[in-house]
Design brief:
By secondary structure, the chain is an alpha/beta fold. The protein is built from 11 helices and 12 strands. The protein has helices spanning about 15-20, 80-100, 140-150, 150-155, 175-180, 205-215, 235-245, 255-265, 270, 280-285, 295-300; strands spanning about 5-10, 30-35, 45-50, 55, 65, 110-115, 130, 160-165, 170, 200-205, 220-225, 275. Helix 5 (about 175-180) links the parallel strand 9 (about 170) and strand 10.
Amino acid sequence: MMQRVVITGAGGLIGSRLSEMLPDEGYDVVHLTRSRKKGDKYKSFMWDPEAGVCDADAFNAGDIIIHLAGANIGEKRWSPGRKREILDSRIKTAGLLFSSTVSKGIIPSAFISASATGIYGSVISQTIFSELDNPADDFLGETCRLWEAAADPFEAAGVRTVKVRTSVVLAPMGSALSKLRAPAAAGLIIRFAPGSQFFPWIHIDDLCMVYMKAVTDAGMAGAYNAASPEHITHDMLMKEIAKQKRLPVFLPRIPEWLSRLILGEMSVVITTGSRVSCDRLIVSGFEFRYPDIRSALKAC
């Protein structure tokens, strides 16, 4: 029998692509979903994290669980209610997965959880952050710390546990890149001050290959920064977009005060950023298909 991979958040950008890739490598893909759609390609089981309910037949011993579920941090302003939703969608869901598996004697062979490079905080720093650095104490840092801590019970139970600290994902459609390049359709390149903020990034294909390696490589465990080896700033990114779109860069940067006025506290997502090391991932044997921003944008 093919080994099963159970995916949460499978309808998102990463989950959709992984669901296409895993069967080609001989894995049986299963989705956990809040609602079934007619004509679903993959076998699915129902769960309701808010109610703490999960289909009792969703898991078998030896399954690999890929936990991608989580509210989009860039979708709405960070009101107190939205912040709680962002936290609960990551932490309570992981708790429900644990109570539906290990707590019932159903032991997965691996638990692979999404996380984010936001764990290092909303700052512009000259530090190149590695997995050994401590989480920041701001909202993103604390969110990621608790997100990863929610996976720790699996590790304590002897389950191989991997935490993929994802940087900004670049994809042809449906990623942050779509928003950044949208004004180009009107012939405009819009930049956000200060411009010197670093922009850790990864192409969707490389990110999915990180997850594929976490599935297949029994030696992978712990946290890994999923970020390209090329360090760029926001200005460098927009300059390359302008070059590939054959557009001039002439507008002044949108000032930070205006970004904050429009987006609130969430503006830190675009006005701050630091470099992130992917050395641990490379040492594990991972090779990037798109190691530089030029090739990644061309592919998008």
